Structure formats: C-alpha cells, structure tokens
C-alpha cells in the first residue's frame, strides 16, 4: 500500500508505469501475508516488484510500448513471471520502455516519456528506462528489465541504481517478446547489488521451453557476497574510454577502479582490440533478427487491426500506422541486410566479426577474472536532445553492446556523480560467472 501510494504521488512527473495492477498487487500481498513465516520462504516473498512491458504477464496488458500491441493481454506468463509468482513476489504493474526495446532513452515509447528521477527534464536511459526510473523514484523495490545491447545497464547507470545483464542462456527468454533473439536477456534491477543477487536467484535456471536456456547449476548468489576481493584480477580495457566520453564520467569510473584496488583487487590493463567494430556489427545483427521477429505483428494474429480493402491492405496499414518510426527503421535495415545479394556482405560478415569480438573476451579472461569499464559515455541527457539523430542515440551503447555480442554477463553499480547526475561502473564477467561479478559489485558498494 505504501508503494502504491508512492506510485500515485510520483507518477504524474516520473511516468514510469504503463499499467498499475493495484488490485492484483493487494491480492498477492494478502496471499503472501497469509503464508508468512513458512520455513521455505524465498527472500522475495511479499516483495513488491514491477515488470518491463515486453515480458508476457497472463491477463495483464503487455504492449511493448507499441500501438501494435495496444490492449493486448497475453494468455500465458513468461517463465520469469512464473518463477516470481512461485517465490511469492508481488507485481505492482508494467513499466514503460522504448518501443520493442529499441532505443536508449525510453523516448521511442508510443505512450509516454519517462523522466529521470534525478532530473525530470532528462531521460532515464533505455530501453528499460521505466524499470530504472521506478527503482530510483522509490516506486518498486526491484524491477525486471531486458538487455539486448545495454538496455538494463545504461538506464541503471543513468538512474544511479544497480542492474545485471546475465549471461546469455542464464535466464529463460520464454515469454519475453523477442527483439534480437541471439542477444536478448532478462535481468534484475534494484538499489543494491545484494538485492540484484536475491532476484537473480529466483530468475536463473534451466527452462526446457527456451531452447537457448543453459542447463547448468545455479550457485547461491547471496552466499558469494563475501566482501573479499583479495587476489581478484580486474582488467581495465583502454578501448572503453572512448573519444568523446564526458570527463566526469571517466573520472568517476577510474576512481571506482581505484577503490577496487584499495579493496585488494589487482588492476591489470587489458586490450579488447575489436571493440570498435561492435557498434556496426550490432546494428546489422540486431535489426536483422528484429525484422524477422516482428514479422508476426500483422494485425491478424495479435492486437488491433486497421481496416483495409484487402487482407494485404489491412496488414500494410496496421504495420504502417502502428509501428513507430524507430521500429520501422530497424525493420527496413534488417530486411535489407538479410536480402539476397546483401546477406554475405552484411549479415554473414557481421556474424564473423561477432566471433572475433567474442574471442577478445576469451583472451582477456585468460589474464583477468573480471573487466571494469564505463557503462555509458555520458550522464543522463536532456529529453529531446538525440531524438532527431539516431546515430548519436546509437552511440550511447558503445560500451555495452560488445557484452551482448559476446554473450557474457555485465553488472552495473552506481559509482558517484558527474555534474550532479549518477554514473555507473560496469563490471564484465566470464560466461555463467555472475557470482564473481556480484561479489565485486557488492564489495564496492
Ligand atoms: N539501444 C540499443 C538498441 O536500440 C539496445 C537496446 C536494448 O538493449 N534493448 O538496440
């Protein structure tokens, strides 16, 4: 009830929620109260959370912030929702994001622009901007975001909270409405790394309904938070301190790395030479996969349908009117990159470069246990500043995209301020070694 009141009080300015499920939340909270004290409790029992609106919630509107899924209510729950429900968590509602998770500012939502709680005239980052803003504004104790190229980590950094993109395959994607299937991961966002660990515990694990889900044991993440960093080798890649990075961001990041050293870690320079190819590689692969994934939204199988003379008119009008400009741009880029005659030059090439980027990380992880880097070259930028310049928007993800291409995990921890706005330290780990990332992030915090 306190959080619902907080939502009511702050939503007029923050605008993080697309749907508030107040009645459901109260019912779930009552049910959790009724079973309080049982020995088998999950730490999430009775904990109020909110969910990015690209994750299917049975009977609850799931829009992907798009007009093409206006009023669409899925007939089933995503696996992560089943797991949260089984743990006794409470759902407060569904959170705003960029349309189909395409963007870095939450401004491509068809419904509303979310404000950054630290400065409402600035963006919360994206695409999981609603998920980051809701935590930062005290509207939910934790949220789920999704990360295809940085969408958990960049908004976590810009809103001064913690967020984790797990290893590809660690968390089931079943019921996550797909953007780039080979890159997408669901992950937890919360104030502290300790809370992120509690949430990951519930989310992680094999799911036979997701063919890319890994069948590996899930360690006890909270037990890994020992506070001890002695002997940990932390790599610092020069390539991530990109040209044009705001000096205040670089300074806060380097100071945070010094703190890791003071805590007993060994700081080692490493090189990830293919970093500069990550952005063009990502912007071939992600739109290519998106163009295929979004082909299903034709007004026949899902959501609303625009009237037209023939079936083809209907499909054309529905897709033409109900997908926003950024989504249409990605579908066109992706269709082009996959078309006969261009496939070898673009898509195949991008896949080859992706392998080289992955090898950069494999090589670095023979020398170090984790990598520490900036998350975003800038702090939260003013609403509207980059909306007319897609390339400037794409550049916000230079430090986060390579991690998705390599499939490795990435954790963001708040590490101070630049010009009174939050900065986030990004920690990158070996595949399926979220435990070490969480230990480092928690010790820092
Ligand atoms: N900003 C990147 C994009 O627009 C990443 C988005 C994401 O991670 N979902 O594709």
TrEMBL record:
Keywords: ATP-binding, Ligase, Nucleotide-binding, Protein biosynthesis. Gene3D superfamilies: Amidase signature (AS) domain. One of its GO terms (biological process) is translation. Its EC number is 6.3.5.7. Pfam families: Amidase. It comes from the Bacteria. InterPro entries: Amidase (IPR000120), Amidase_CS (IPR020556), Amidase_dom (IPR023631), AS_sf (IPR036928), GatA (IPR004412). This is Glutamyl-tRNA(Gln) amidotransferase subunit A. The gene is gatA.
